[in-house]
Amino acid sequence: MLKFKSLVLFCLCLISSINAFSQNVKEPTGTPKEWSAAYAPFRIAGNLYYVGTYDLACYLITTSKGNILINTGLSSSAALIKKNIEQLGFKFSDTKILLTTQAHYDHLGAMAEIKRLTGAKFMVYKEDASVLKDGGKSDYALGGKESSYAPIIPDKLLRNNEVVTLGNFSLKMLHHPGHTKGSCSFIFSTADKNRSYKVLIANMPSIVTEKNFEDVKEYPKIAEDYAYTFKSMKTLTFDIWLASHASQFKLHEKHKPSDGYHPEVFMDRNGYIRSLNELEKAYTEKIKNNK
């Protein structure tokens, strides 16, 4: 009994420390202002909504048993995301599952805080779990002496092609490594009164390290993982595609805050393939320069 009480006390102290850290963490210098700028939330298609900032895409999916939030932006964005969700008419406290496309500070900076506020369960691909525990310090590209986001321990580790279900809704997680070891995309179906849509929230495989791949000792499979991801992503079929950054899927060319509900503007496979080809070209050039 004494050991159990000691364990509970230790856990409470750990949670308290993480909460205190999340209030004081600072993003790295040079963080673009577009990453924290407000943007009006809107309905994308069916039960899928945009609740992120001007450039950091965060997605709310509503279900019969609560809601799913994918990505949380910077550590300073928790209040903004809460405001966006409530502006759409939903309860922030109804957030039940938290997901992320990658373990970088610009996509899960506020994850620990939102988890604390809502009590939602955080799920992540297993290969990103270790870097989450030190707040990004051990990340092969963006790591350093200090954490760039509050450390967070996942409630569940996901595997490739695993299905996450909440209420009457399911989505599939697709492992697309390279950008981080556990980078992933999500694919699912949604519908409105007119039709159904197959939606891909793609984690685009941009290269973040300046080192030659062979010099990235923390990630010996990085070149192989990127190659796998490009091949895998080109085989996907969908109606609508979105991404981790609004700029990646040209949100601001397709949608203005005063626009109504127009899912068709996000049906842009040509733009998806064009973006993938540009990123793959950069990857090929890097491989070539490594030799």
UniProtKB/TrEMBL annotation:
Residues 1-22 form the signal peptide. Gene3D superfamilies: Ribonuclease Z/Hydroxyacylglutathione hydrolase-like. Transmembrane segments: none annotated. Keywords: Hydrolase, Metal-binding, Signal, Zinc. InterPro entries: MBL_Glyoxalase_II, Metallo-B-lactamas, RibonucZ/Hydroxyglut_hydro. Its cofactor is Zn(2+). It holds the Pfam family Lactamase_B. This is Subclass B3 metallo-beta-lactamase. It comes from Pedobacter jejuensis. The lineage of its organism: Bacteria, Pseudomonadati, Bacteroidota, Sphingobacteriia, Sphingobacteriales. The gene is bla.
